[in-house]
Hints:
This protein is 28% helix and 28% strand. With 112 residues, the protein is of the alpha+beta class. The protein has a 6-stranded antiparallel β-sheet. It is globular and about 45 Å long.
Amino acid sequence: MASNIQFIEFVTAQIKNAGEITAKKMFGEYALYADGKIFGLVCDNKLYIKPTISGRAYIKNVVESPAYEGAKPSFLIEEKVEDSQWLSELIRITIQELPEPKPKKAKAQAKK
């Protein structure tokens, strides 16, 4: 079951002061970004956040689950998705620990 846009809009609206939050549709699901840095996924209307040491300490009782078959485990955020202040802080501390995105390679120009 693919995620619906209403859930994506709800989640992105919940996150405040963590940069520009955007969602990009990928393979029927969504990747979440803060200022161009991927920090999570929404799959089957469930929020998954990339695991970090600081995020684990903040959450305390972490529930980990792969977002899709074959994926590495991520932090599964369920009830707390409705707590905007808590979720926003989790995203802020998570993105501080994640590496900067790699620059995109320029596409090679076709030879004439």
